[in-house]
Structures are given as structure tokens and as C-alpha cells.
Design a protein that fits this description.
mainly alpha; Glutaredoxin; 2 domains; four-stranded mixed β-sheet; 4 strands; about 5% strand; globular; binds glutathione
């Protein structure tokens, strides 16, 4: 098994944090996606989504989606569990992970892709395109992020972690949504104090250095 990774890439770091929290090690190959390595062979054929991370199994199967990679590794290494240990836990964690990803992380990601100069010509991940960066997408992403934190914040007044009392994959996803909010200079501490508390605590975990 081989994990194709790139240090600065948020999606790849999601998997590295997961591995650290689980105490698992996987042989890793660094692929510089800023330099276009994902468009060269054999990588372009291995992963038509042209993104990191992706996991190559010993039989040649490629899993190219961060959460799918984590789910696969969790099945091989069930404890400590980050996806839940029974039907209810698994459903609640999946619900939060999807909500965080769809309502927080992806709106923020598109806002970043449409505002940061480095992403000119690359507004769609894994795609070389002449689609222009759009200030309207940036604005909408920030608005969606505010709506998302408005829903998350009261929940975090009663819950230590995103999906309840225990750390889960949803915390790892939310770490990146809150990091981007911080990069957009959103006032988390003033407007969403429970989310700010959660982010401070999660940021102190050694896994976030992975
Ligand atoms: N949904 C995918 C997203 C992967 C993704 O967007 N990866 C980015 C780095 S954060 C990438 O490799 N981008 C390469 C590019 O846009 O050229 C996942 O979670 O694995």
C-alpha cells in the first residue's frame, strides 16, 4: 500500500492527521501537485481526478478521496475508532462529517480557490482551466461559512467534539473549515465562541503537526 501525499495540501493533511490520531503508518510518496506532477504518467492514469491524496493498494486499486481512504484504513485498524463503533455512532458521525464538508469546508475551499492568486487557472481542483476566479463565489462561500458556523456554534456549547463526546473524522474535516475561516479573518472568537474554543483545543493536538 502507498499513500500519495503533498505536504501543503489540505486534503492530504486530513489523511495525515487521521493516521496520526489512529497511530497508523503508511508508506508515503510526495507528489508536488503545485508543479503539475499529477498530470504526468503514471499518476494521471492512476488517478483521473488529478488530486492528492490517493492510496494505491497492493493489487493496483486506487482510492482517490480523503474520507474514502480514511474509511478503508479504519476498517483495517478499527481502534481507536474515528468513524463510530455502532450503527447510531456511525450515522451521527457521517451526518456531521457530511454537513461540515458540504456546508463549511467546500464553500470555504471554493472561496479560497477563487481569491488566492496561486489558484488562477486552477479554480476547480485537479483541473487546468481558463475559468476566471470569481469574486461572487468568494462572497457566497464566506456567507455559507457564516451560516454553517451559526448552526454549529450552539451545538458546540454542549458537545466537546463535533459529533458529540468523542473525537471523530468530523473534527478533522472541521479543523480545515475553521482554518480557512481564520484565513478569511472571520471573527470566530467574537461571533462563534464555542467554535473558537473547539478550534483552539483541536489545534493543540499533536496530530495537527502531521
Ligand atoms: N475531495 C478530494 C479533494 C482533493 C483535492 O482537492 N486535493 C487538492 C489539494 S488540497 C489537489 O490535489 N489539487 C491539485 C490541483 O488542484 O491541481 C479529497 O478530499 O481527497
Amino acid at each position: 500500500m502507498k499513500l500519495y501525499d503533498f505536504g501543503p495540501a489540505a486534503s492530504a493533511k486530513r489523511v495525515r492527521i487521521f493516521l496520526h490520531e489512529k497511530g497508523i503508518q503508511v508508506p508515503t510518496v510526495e507528489l508536488d501537485v503545485r508543479d503539475g506532477a499529477q498530470y504526468k504518467e503514471p499518476f494521471t492514469t492512476m488517478n483521473p481526478f488529478h488530486c492528492v491524496p490517493f492510496l494505491e493498494l497492493d493489487n493496483g486499486t486506487v482510492i482517490a478521496e480523503s474520507i474514502s481512504i480514511c474509511r478503508y484504513l479504519e476498517e483495517l485498524n478499527p481502534t481507536p475508532s474515528l468513524f463510530g463503533q455502532n450503527s447510531e455512532e456511525r450515522a451521527v458521525i457521517d451526518m456531521w462529517n457530511r454537513r461540515v464538508e458540504l456546508d463549511g469546508f467546500y464553500p470555504a475551499l471554493h472561496a479560497a480557490r477563487n481569491s488566492i492568486p496561486m489558484f488562477k487557472g486552477r479554480v476547480v481542483p485537479g483541473t487546468r482551466t481558463d475559468i476566471e476566479q470569481s469574486p461572487a463565489v468568494v462572497e457566497r462561500g464566506k456567507e455559507m461559512l457564516e451560516i454553517f458556523f451559526g448552526r454549529l456554534d450552539p451545538h458546540l456549547s454542549d458537545n466537546a467534539f463535533i459529533a458529540g463526546a468523542k473525537i471523530s473524522i468530523a473534527d478533522i474535516t472541521c479543523f480545515f473549515a475553521t482554518n480557512m475561516a481564520t484565513a478569511f479573518e472571520m471573527d470566530l472568537e467574537g461571533k462563534f465562541p464555542n467554535t473558537y474554543r473547539w478550534h483552539q483545543e483541536f489545534s493543540a493536538r499533536p496530530s495537527t503537526e502531521a
